[in-house]
Specification:
The complex is a heterodimer. Chain A is built from three helices and eleven strands, in the order βααβββββββββαβ. By secondary structure, chain A is α/β, with parallel strands linked by helices. The radius of gyration of chain A is 18 Å and the shape is elongated. In chain A, 11% of the residues lie in helices and 23% in strands. The longest helix of chain A has 13 residues. Chain A has a single domain, classed as Glutamate synthase, alpha subunit, C-terminal domain (Pectate Lyase C-like, 3 Solenoid), CATH 2.160.20. Chain B has one domain: TIM Barrel, CATH 3.20.20.70. In chain B, the strands form five sheets. Chain B has an eight-stranded parallel β-sheet. A two-stranded antiparallel sheet of chain B has the order 1-13. Chain B starts with 21 loop residues before the first helix and ends in a 16-residue tail after the last helix. The model of chain B has no long low-confidence stretch (mean pLDDT 94). The chains are: A alpha/beta, B alpha/beta. At the A-B interface, helix 2 of A face helix 4 and helix 6 of B.
Chain lengths: 227, 446
């Protein structure tokens, strides 16, 4: 395992070093120490490496991640795993706003709670939150799955497109065009797989599914009050 | 009984109301019939103070000119010198503004790349991501980072020559966008991760940052992903240009792109286009002042867009302090948009040459703002690229002509002292003297 002291060597050197790892690197496991809430840690990675960050991170940790596994042993600031393409990001603590925003793929696991706008504009990413999520989560979410073992705040799934939302606890309110939907066998299977991959202690049958009513997909003046 | 021999009483001539004009009444009737606001493309059509209201003074005894056909007048510009390892070096200070694949056809995007590259300048992606056609045909390609993040991915981010974070645009500062379902082909839908045929909303603000402090961190993230190699632009709509420029620079922008209300859009509400934002002319001096107050004028470059049509406009924007300009609507016209040869078809669409602006409907007779395969086939990207190259060369030659006449051997040596204004409004906005005086509104001493 390679150890990188962020305080000593700095952010530019960290990302430059991680970007230099190709698919056939033998330096596959990295440990980043002294993270101390720094921003943009391990962003833009594109190799099947594992990066363990000791401590909490600032904004945009693992932003635009591809292939890599980034494991934060602490909490994450805003925009963790934003626009992720593939790979896995695990947060042992809580995540701030916009977790997984606009993500195209991969798996984001948050073992604590996630703040507002979790999964905003998600485009294919899978997100599993062991705790609760804040208001306006999955706003304009396009595709992918958002799984919440706890409760969801106000306006869940506002202006939702084709993303699937699974919530085990309560939902304070649903956003525009978001409705509860039937949990069919294929959804149980999707959920079972995600829960297993996220090491989550829950049964798929305990969840409710939410999705788009698709009434706002094409502008209609009679729906103006919903906007 | 009426006396037929009495002289006729003169009638009051019918007078049209300036307030309730025929176009205004037509819009009221349209609104009453449909219950929905009017959506269109393009920029503000209303008359606003513009570059036409400025004149160059030219050289005389106090300054002497350069020989137009012999003495050199440089046009090169380098953008992104503040932090980027690889600034963009352009032969001319006229760039192509961001226009999306989706709003435009792929051959039209290809033509923009061809024309810009042949003229030695850059072109810009738009909402919806980067297409192979435009990357392949653009020597210098600026990749827009928009609130929707449609098509955004790190691979394209790294193969861009610059990245433009779009905060706003002049046609609709503070507003998002809508690409209507009829323009969502399989390819457009695929690039945007959305079903075919549905209206695709583009958000009005970014999903993962709010405010200038966040923007600074967002710029840091993008620089880290791209290895600090390429310039990062921040594009703002013309609203509060002094403060927005200051904040963009504070956040770490290499280049500020400033778009006035005449700048076009693919589609938004007419009421938005005509009533929100500042004329381009009113934006430039406050933005330049902000850069000067920060001690960064010319170190952080300023690109101005919104209503640039001629080399005179280019020269005037640069004289007021811009480093370069960007063209959008003019580039489309150069490609063939609103060309009289399609007049019969414009008539069928209820419009006429020069006024066609329903770009969002996807029925463009010129095949430029459409995804309809039959209409797209009318447009030849090679010929379109050639026309754009010609037009860019003319803009450059015209700007050089004026610069030489003012005695400058580089376009960037043009300065406000080369200008005067024809109207009080233009004098106030451009902060150059009213013609024949040494005064402009706001200047002390009167």
């Amino acid at each position: 395992m390679q150890t990188f002291d962020l305080e000593v060597r700095g952010l530019r050197a960290l990302n430059e070093t991680l970007h230099a790892q190709a698919g056939n690197t033998n330096q596959t496991v990295w440990e980043v120490i002294n993270a101390k809430g720094s921003h943009a840690i391990a962003v833009g990675l594109d190799a099947p490496i594992e990066v363990n960050v000791k401590g909490s991170t600032g904004y945009y940790c693992a932003g635009m991640n591809s292939q890599a596994t980034v494991h934060v042993h602490g909490s994450a600031g805003p925009g963790v795993a934003e626009n992720m393409m593939s790979g896995t990001v695990i947060i042992e603590g809580d995540a701030s706003q916009y977790a997984g925003a606009t993500g195209h793929g991969g798996l984001l696991v948050i073992k604590g709670n996630a703040s507002s706008r979790c999964g905003i504009s998600m485009k294919g990413i899978d997100i599993v939150v062991h705790g609760n999520i804040g208001h306006m989560s999955a706003f304009m979410a396009q595709s992918g799955n958002l799984v919440v073992l706890g409760n969801a705040g106000d306006a869940l799934g506002d202006s939702l497109y084709e993303a699937r939302l699974f919530v085990r606890g309560s939902v304070k309110s649903l956003g525009a065009d978001c409705i509860e939907k039937e949990m069919r066998p294929e959804h149980i299977e999707i959920l079972r797989d995600l829960l297993e991959r996220a090491d989550a202690d829950a049964r798929p049958e305990e969840f409710k599914r939410y999705g788009s009513a698709r009434k706002l997909y094409n502008f209609d003046v009679d729906n103006a009050a919903a906007y | 009984m009426k006396d037929k021999s009495a002289p006729a009483i003169p009638r009051t001539e019918p007078i049209q109301s300036a307030t309730f004009s025929n176009p205004v009444n037509a819009e009221i009737r349209r609104a009453a019939a449909t219950g929905i606001y009017d959506i269109r493309g393009g920029g503000a059509k209303r008359r606003v103070p513009h570059f036409d209201d400025l004149l160059f003074l030219g050289a005389s005894i106090s300054r002497y000119p350069l020989e137009g056909y012999r003495e050199k007048c440089d046009t090169r510009v380098t953008l992104g010198t503040r932090f980027a390892k690889n600034p963009i070096k352009l032969d001319i200070p006229v760039t192509i503004a961001g226009m999306s694949f989706g709003a435009l056809s792929s051959p039209a995007k290809e033509a923009l790349g061809r024309g810009a590259s042949a003229a030695g300048t850059s072109t810009t992606t738009g909402d919806g991501g980067m297409t192979e056609e435009e990357r392949g045909h653009s020597t210098k390609l600026v990749y827009q980072y928009l609130p929707s993040r449609y098509g955004m991915n790190p691979t394209d981010l790294r193969r861009a020559d610059a990245i433009e974070i779009v905060v706003g645009q002049g046609a609709k500062p503070g507003g998002g966008g809508m690409l209507l379902g009829q323009k969502i082909s399989d390819r457009v839908a695929g690039m945007r991760n959305l079903p075919k045929g549905i209206d695709q909303r583009s958000a009005c603000r970014h999903p993962d940052w709010t405010g200038p402090d966040d923007l600074e961190i967002k710029i840091l993230e993008i620089r880290e992903i791209t290895g600090w190699k390429v310039p990062i632009y921040v594009k703002i709509g013309g609203t509060r240009p002094y403060y927005d420029t200051t904040l963009a620079v504070k956040a770490g922008a290499d280049v500020v792109v400033l778009d006035g209300m005449q700048g076009g859009t693919a589609a938004t509400q007419d009421v938005f286009i005509e009533n929100v934002g500042l004329p381009t002319l009113a934006c430039i001096r406050p933005a330049v002042q902000a850069l000067q107050d920060l001690g960064l004028h010319r170190e952080v470059q300023l690109i101005v867009s919104g209503g640039i049509r001629t080399g005179a406009d280019v020269a005037k924007a640069i004289a007021l302090g811009a480093d370069a300009v960007a063209i959008g609507t003019a580039a489309l016209v150069a490609l063939g948009d609103n060309d009289p040869k399609w007049e019969a078809e414009y008539q069928k669409l209820g419009t006429t040459t020069g006024a066609y602006d329903d770009w969002h409907e996807g029925r463009d007779p010129a095949g430029i703002t459409t995804q309809d395969p039959e209409l797209m086939a009318r447009f030849d990207p090679i010929e379109g690229g050639r026309r754009l190259r010609n037009y860019l060369k003319v803009l450059t030659l015209e700007a050089q002509t004026i610069a030489r006449a003012c005695g400058h051997n580089h376009l960037h040596n043009l300065e406000p002292e080369d200008l005067c204004a024809l109207t009080m409004e233009a004098a106030a906005m451009a902060r150059v003297p009213l013609a024949g005086t040494d005064w402009y509104p706001g200047k002390a001493g009167f």
